[in-house]
Specification:
The complex is a heterodimer of chains A (282) and B (523). In chain A, 72% of the residues lie in helices and 0% in strands. With 282 residues, chain A is mainly alpha-helical. Chain A has a single domain, classed as MetI-like (MetI-like fold), CATH 1.10.3720. In chain A, helix 8 (184-220) packs parallel to helix 9 (232-239) and helix 8 packs antiparallel against helix 10. Mean pLDDT of chain A is 83; it is low at 1-11. Chain B is an alpha/beta fold. Chain B folds into three domains: 4-252, P-loop containing nucleotide triphosphate hydrolases (Rossmann fold, 3-Layer(aba) Sandwich), CATH 3.40.50; 256-351 and 427-514, Rossmann fold, CATH 3.40.50; 358-425, no CATH class. In chain B, the strands form four sheets. A six-stranded mixed β-sheet of chain B has the order 6-7-8-3-9-10, sandwiched between helices. A six-stranded mixed β-sheet of chain B has the order 16-17-18-13-19-20, sandwiched between helices. In chain B, a hairpin with a 2-residue loop joins strand 9 and strand 10. The longest helix of chain B is centred in the middle third of the chain and has 18 residues, at 182-199. Chain B is globular. The model of chain B is unreliable at 261-265 and 514-523 (pLDDT under 50). The chains are: A mainly alpha (282), B alpha/beta (523). The interface between A and B is medium-sized, with 23 and 32 residues.
Chain lengths: 282, 523
């Protein structure tokens, strides 16, 4: 999308420090997602003799858990499981939101009513409870949980996109496009969408943070991530019992969830602001 | 005694000095007009006198009201107690300056209570509010109304009553009538003039409209890019301008041009031309409201038809029905001998195009100028290589193609909108208030461009405007609309010089501003 290109004057301005730090955090997190399994191929290696070591003992920087697994290795390797799911959830619900929200907001009429009732229905379901019930019925599993959360996250995207599209549809530039007899698809996706992009992307980033927490909660509750997988939420559940023997085993994954969620939020906010400035007065 | 004295007032912003130091005085009971185009610094100067400069702007200098110094350039706290009581501000749009959720009476009462420092008893309050409303010639029951229940003119009267509620000595009126219809404009200014005389008030009137200033102000300051280029008695400055910028402003004003007779549209022989489009018996209703009652209108090939009327007269709805953006409920619209069904689906881009009023929202802010024009050219099967030619046609340099709309001025944007409308080679160009959002000098340039295009391309124009003076400059024939009906139509010069209908006469009088206030002295 050409809309992302910032104007010349603005591209030279550095983002605020909080955003720079957040970007660094996200870069490290993504590095862990990509390289985690290569850096710590045997993260899940159990060593009963060194079970529950405190940080620093026997060469384990953050200690080990009940099964003698190295906490540092698991936390790095767990990034993939903890982050890939939420990112896919946020992107997936954004795609659903853009398609259905744009159709509903531009076409209005019966299509809008049908999509509207559908979002009402989904919004009435408590996300976690629905995920637990459906996960239980379908036998759970990582990808089932991801698919389910995409569906449950989509109503807010649909509504936000719909509202943004409706606002834009009333502008004269859309009528000018109609005067050129452009196809409705061109009007919707070439004219309107770039103007709601800031909204869509900001919301997607917020959803990454929400999904990260929701996904970790589900892992914590034993839905979604299979036992024996390196995953931050899973670590929280497994290590509750040894909280006083090796606090790091619980607090490190918990802190990672919080720090990454906050960083995603800050960066999302900043991107949203930048995008919404592109079309504005210099 | 001198009312208001301003010495060395200057405003600096992030981009340097916006207003060069200047002096001025406004004796009690007189009006000073501050004239200039948008961006000239006139609004910044005014806002510095009430401590409302936007963030990043700083005022310096001194100003006194009745020998009491104003805290020019000081912080917000210093202005508390000064705003409203010594200096009050009247804004352009009464819809945004009044709170939409509170009753008008309450909004007037707040200012009075704030000035008195205590709440009034219910009866005392009702009487005080009624007295203020009577001063602006509004009935007592308006106090119970919310702003949206009032017309634009009534809202601006309420705003005046609220601004004057704490009896300030200086009233700054920033384009107070720009958002109103022509007949309301004159009434509001005459009202202000009357109140000013009664109260011995000093008024600073900010405007881009020379016609309004004429006969309603005592002295005038002309500002160009932050510098006062001319000052003096209003009648002297307008009749004998010394500075070229003042002269340019006066020449560009359509009323002045029309008075001189030089602005009349060049007579084009239209007899025997075939009808390009005609609308017969058009009826349009929105819910229970009928906005068009069997309206007829026709445009010949290459003809410029002006449609005038106040807001709510149905002129824009008629144009939108012809364009297919609105579906008429009755009547037929023919184009080049063929009947068009209501709506866009039956129309093609090479039949008609619209240029809208607001050049800021009629271009997609996310697209470059090149992309905007290339898209419109592609509709007619023309390539993007014609973009520079389109820009040249509307008098813009080719380099502008890589910019986005936000980087252009209002006039440049309107030129782009015209180029986009011309790209599919339409036979009819509908201009819906296309010049009313622009400064007078830019307005004159765009009008010149449009009439030049008619000669060059043989295109017909349907020119919608509330401003008779503008229509007079460009149109061959004129249609006068009121409350969804055509009240008069015919040859433009004839209708406007010898109006047959009372309403047309009223419009003509309002537009030439010859109904100058009694006692205000005509220039």
């Amino acid at each position: 999308m050409t809309a992302v290109a910032p104007t010349r004057a603005r591209s030279r301005r550095l983002p605020p420090a909080s955003v720079l730090v957040s970007l660094a955090v996200l870069a490290l997190a993504l590095l862990a997602v990509v390289l985690g399994r290569f850096l710590f191929p045997d993260a899940m290696h159990q060593d009963i003799l060194s079970s529950t070591l405190a940080p620093g003992e026997d060469g384990h920087l953050l200690g080990t858990d009940e099964l003698g697994r190295d906490v540092l290795a698991m936390s790095v390797a767990g990034a993939a499981s903890a982050l890939v799911g939420p990112i896919i959830i946020a992107v997936g619900s954004m795609v659903l939101g853009v398609i259905l929200g744009t159709l509903a907001g531009y076409e209005r009429g019966w299509l809008d009513s049908v999509i509207g009732r559908w979002t009402d229905l989904l919004l009435a379901l408590p996300v976690l409870l629905a995920a637990i019930v459906v996960g239980g019925v379908l036998g759970g599993g990582y990808w089932v949980t991801v698919g389910l959360l995409i569906l449950l996250f989509s109503p807010s995207d649909i509504r936000i996109v719909r509202a943004g599209v409706m606002e834009q549809s009333a502008r004269p530039y859309i009528e000018a496009a109609q005067m050129l007899s452009l196809s409705r698809w061109r009007v919707m996706f070439r004219h309107i969408l770039p103007n709601v992009a800031s909204l869509v992307i900001t919301n997607m980033m917020l959803n990454v943070a929400f999904a990260l927490v929701a996904f970790s909660s589900l892992s914590f509750l034993g839905v979604g991530v299979a036992a024996g997988t390196a995953d931050w939420g899973r670590q929280l559940t497994d290590n509750r019992a040894i909280m006083f023997d090796n606090p790091a085993a619980v607090f490190v994954p918990a802190a990672l969830i919080v720090v990454v969620a906050v960083a995603v939020n800050l960066v999302g906010d900043w991107i949203g602001q930048r995008l919404s400035q592109v079309g504005e007065e210099a | 005694m001198i009312g208001v004295e301003i010495t060395g007032l200057t405003v600096t912003g992030p981009a340097g000095t916006m207003v060069q130091p200047f002096d001025a005085e406004i004796p009690l009971g007189t009006t000073l007009a501050l004239i200039g185009e948008s961006g000239s610094g006139k609004t910044l100067s005014a806002k510095s006198l009430i401590g409302l400069l936007p963030r990043g702007f700083k005022a310096e200098g001194a100003a006194t009201v009745a020998d009491t110094p104003l805290p020019v350039g000081r912080d917000d706290a210093s202005w508390r107690g000064v705003r409203g009581r010594q200096v009050a501000l009247l804004l352009q749009d009464p819809f945004t300056s009044l709170s939409p959720v509170h009753r008008c009476g309450d909004q007037i009462a707040w200012t009075m209570e704030a000035a008195r420092g205590h709440r009034m008893l219910r009866r005392e309050r009702r009487e005080a509010v009624a007295a203020r409303l009577a001063e602006v010639k509004l009935p007592e029951h308006v106090a119970e109304a919310h702003p949206h229940q009032l017309s634009g003119g009534m809202r601006q009267r309420v705003a005046i009553a609220a601004a004057l509620a704490a009896d300030p000595q200086l009233l700054i009126a920033d384009e107070p009538t720009t958002a109103l219809d022509a007949s309301n404009q004159a009434e509001i200014l005459d009202l202000l003039r009357a109140i000013q005389a009664e109260r011995r008030l000093s008024v600073m009137l900010i405007s881009h409209d020379l016609g309004l200033v004429r006969g309603r102000t005592d002295t005038v300051l002309v500002m160009q890019s932050g510098v006062i280029v001319e000052r003096g008695e209003t009648s002297r400055v307008l009749s004998d301008p010394q500075h070229p910028y003042t002269r340019a402003l006066i020449d560009a004003d359509p009323v002045v041009a029309a008075r001189r007779g030089s602005g009349e549209a060049a007579a084009v022989d239209l007899d025997g031309r075939p009808t390009l489009t005609s609308a017969q018996g058009i009826v349009k209703t929105f819910g229970h409201r009928t906005v068009l009652h069997e309206v007829d209108l026709s445009v010949r090939e290459g003809e410029i038809v002006g449609v005038v009327g106040e807001s709510g007269s149905g002129k824009t709805t008629l144009a939108r029905c012809i364009a297919g953006l609105e579906k008429e409920d009755g009547g037929t619209i023919d184009f080049a001998g063929e009947t068009l069904a209501p709506g866009r689906a039956s129309r093609t881009p090479d039949q008609m195009q619209i240029v809208f009023q607001d050049p800021y929202s009629s271009l997609n802010p996310m697209m470059s100028i090149r992309a905007i024009l290339a898209e419109a050219l592609a509709v007619a099967g023309r390539g993007a290589d014609e973009v520079p030619a389109m820009l040249e046609l509307v008098g813009l340099p080719a380099e502008i193609a890589s910019r986005r709309p936000a980087e252009l001025s209002g006039g440049q944007r309107q030129r782009i909108a015209i180029a986009r409308a011309l790209a599919p080679r339409p036979r009819l160009l509908i201009c819906d208030e296309s010049v009313s959002a622009l400064d007078v000098s830019v307005q004159a340039q765009i009008l010149e461009l449009l009439s030049g295009l008619r000669e060059q391309l043989g295109i017909a124009l349907l020119f919608i405007s509330h401003d008779l003076a503008v229509v007079r400059m460009i149109a061959d024939t004129v249609v006068v609309m009121r409350d969804g009906r055509v009240v008069e139509q015919g040859d433009c010069a004839q209708v406007l010089t010898e109006p047959a209908h009372d309403y047309t006469r009223l419009l003509v009088a309002a537009s030439t501003r010859e109904n100058a206030p009694a006692g205000a002295g005509k220039d």
